[in-house]
Amino acid sequence: MTFPSDVPVHDPSDPNRSPFERGQRRGRLARVPRGAIAGISLGGILLGSLTVSLVVMAVWPGSFNLFAPLLCSADLPDSFVVVDRYQVRPGETSWNFTMYCVGPTGRSDEVGFFRPMLLLYAATAVLLTAVALVAAWRVRRAHPTAGPFG
């Protein structure tokens, strides 16, 4: 039986010690390139903003109306989102979202789905990026010496 006092103490500068004992290996494995962290963060923000914008569009189709000033001309100031629901086959339902700009005389212009959805996606991406930057700034401020992953 060995006691802690029986274990030999090694000199830290001893060249015969393994890299794990010297603590060099741990530091090398823990470092992650900043580009990898930025790429993973950007991918997460883009995927998250796509998910959030699709959920917002499905729950509140009127969210497209937020972008009417950008998509509708001055003579067609009012915007409407029409949601068409139809059955492709029995037991299968399809939804179609279309934005229209309508003027006071009843003249209308179809904006469609893609442009309002693209603007909603971009707005969500900007919002999530701002939230991520504020969160990163607060973490850096709270722990100024902490690097990536500790």
Order of helices and strands: HHHHEEEH
Into which percent range does the helicity of residues fall? Answer: 40-55%
- Low-pLDDT segments: 24-29
The whole-angstrom Rg is 28 Å
Major sheet: arrangement of strands: 1-2-3
Secondary-structure-based class equals alpha+beta
Shape: elongated
Beta-strand percentage range: 15-25%
Distance between the termini: 38 Å
Largest sheet: 3 strands, antiparallel
Number of structural domains: 1
Model description:
The protein has 150 residues and is α+β, with helices and mostly antiparallel strands. It has one domain. It is 47% helix and 19% strand. It is built from five helices and three strands, in the order ααααβββα. The chain has helices at 19-22, 24-30, 34-59, 68-71, 114-142, and strands at 78-89, 92-102, 108-112. A hairpin with a 5-residue loop joins strand 2 and strand 3 (108-112). The chain starts with 18 loop residues before the first helix and ends in an 8-residue tail after the last helix.
